[in-house]
Amino acid sequence: MLRRFYNLLFPLVFLLLLPGYLRRMVKRGSYRRNFGQRLGYYSRETSERIKSMPGAVWVQAVSVGEMLVALKLIAALRDQSPELPIILSTTTTTGHAVAEERVPGNVEVVYTPVDLPGAVRRAFDGFRPAQMVIVDGGLWPNQLWEARRRGVPTALVNARLSPRSERRYRRFPRLARALFGSLDLVCVAEKNEVERWQNLGISLACLRPTGSIKFDDALLVSTAVDHPTGEAARQQRARRELLASFGVGADTPILLAGSTHPGEERAIGEVYLKLRARFPNLFFIVAPRHVERARQVHTELASLGLSVALRTPISTVPPAANPNTLLLNTTGELKEWFSVATVVFIGKSLCAVGGQNPAEAIAAGIPVVFGPHMENFEELTARLLAADAAVQVSTPLELEARCGQLFADKSERARLAKAARNEIMVHRGAAVRTATLLLAQKRNSACEAI
Questions:
Q1: Nearest Cα to Cα of residue 326 among 445, 240, 386
Q2: Which positions ≥6 away from 193 have C-beta within 8 Å?
Q3: How far apart are CA 292 and CA 160, in angstroms?
Q4: How crowded is residue 266: how many other Cβ atoms within 10 Å of its Cβ?
Q5: Is the per-residue pLDDT at 449 higher than 50?
Q6: Which CATH class is domain 16-211+429-449?
Q7: What's the predicted TM-score (pTM) here?
Q8: Which residue has the higher pLDDT, 425 or 407?
Q9: Looking at the chain, which terminus has fewer C-beta neighbours within 10 angstroms, N or C?
Q10: Whole-number mean pLDDT of the chain?
Q11: CA distance 103 to 135
């Protein structure tokens, strides 16, 4: 009954949301390429390549953030099973671009089908997966139900469930059981999250605390920052050379606002201008969460009187003279920029709700500041604040005051950075632990046997 109701309701909701969905796709570009894959239709070439990958693992990641986690997990899987065939699907064009750029061989990158019964069935018919792995939380009922019908084992890795989300799901117990009860394995970040997942009807036998791959991936950044070699060293030199061309030296203080959302760029830009009264050579780097907003963000910052340089030139935007601000209008390289910052502000936490991942900045050894809305990382935020390892502010005025204190106090910055790194060390090795469990599940096709 629930499945029938969902399949009557979802197409209507999908049609209502379709115009906005298409607008976002057009903004992000490349929306026409492989569009049929979103409906479960694949070209002859793609189908032939997938047919040559029997027993493939279908890994699903929604967007760029989940894709970076998926790529780290794939690397760990390949370390243990080098010939493992993998189909990697994503929802967004930006996630697709990152995947195509970075995947190793024998990984087929496709778009995730819309959760309509026909599209999902066509995808399963074409993929014939031996296992389905979902990263973070991109759960779709028809996908899970179809996997269960076909006997394909399913796993949710890097699973996130905040207390707020748990409360929401518990209001609809039948829906929660129907959705989460279809999962055979759930890899959670910490032991104290196991009980919350049990409350949604998942058997204890199917729950495994593994640590967060997202934070484990961040720890690799810390190694590259502390001891850069090879390509990492070359990229670090390139970043420093670009900054030097703007007059930014190794000792120049830098405020970096990462993964910002609408409203935050202006608010933090105004904070930056006030801080410059105390720190005249202070430099500002801003990285919008969605690069398609770069032109709008550039206009907004320029209207404040900032001289804004672009990481990647836009033909209609003239180069800035003597820039005091760098706008990162690129995808997938923000974590490499954290190491040049003096203080990092975590976006989607001041003028939007949810917060972005602070772990990569922490792993780079940089103190982090965030606003009142860090719901998406509630556990980590609570741990950081309890250890006095991060700074949380409620208003732009408070952000100015606390950033001013940090720019003036080098020892406090070092203390915060060290304390925060200690808090994420528990996640080291999460990717390897998760990969081991997934390969065991693939062999046994039952969580009780893991």
A1: 240
A2: 159, 161, 209, 379
A3: 27
A4: 17
A5: no
A6: alpha beta
A7: 0.78
A8: 407
A9: N
A10: 89
A11: 16
User: Which residue spans of the chain are classified as CATH 3.40.50.2000?
Assistant: 216-427
Query: Residue 127 has which token pair?
Result: 């993929």
Q: Span 216-427: which CATH code?
A: 3.40.50.2000
Average pLDDT, stretch 442-446? 75
Query: According to the model, what pLDDT value does residue 25 have?
Result: 64
Number of H helices, E strands in the chain: 19, 14
According to the model, what pLDDT value does residue 59 have? 98
Phi, psi values for residue 87, rounded to 5°: -110, 120
**Hey, what are 208's tokens?**
């495994």
DSSP string, 358-379: -HHHHHTT--EEE-S--GGGHH
185-231 pLDDT, tens digit per residue, is 999 988 888 988 888 888 899 999 999 998 885 554 444 445 555 66
Q: At 66, list the tokens.
A: 């989940």
**Any bridge partners for residue 346, and if so which?**
258, 370
C-alpha distances in angstroms, 409 versus 250, 350, 370, 416?
Answer: 17, 24, 18, 11
CB 282 within 8 A of CB 309: no
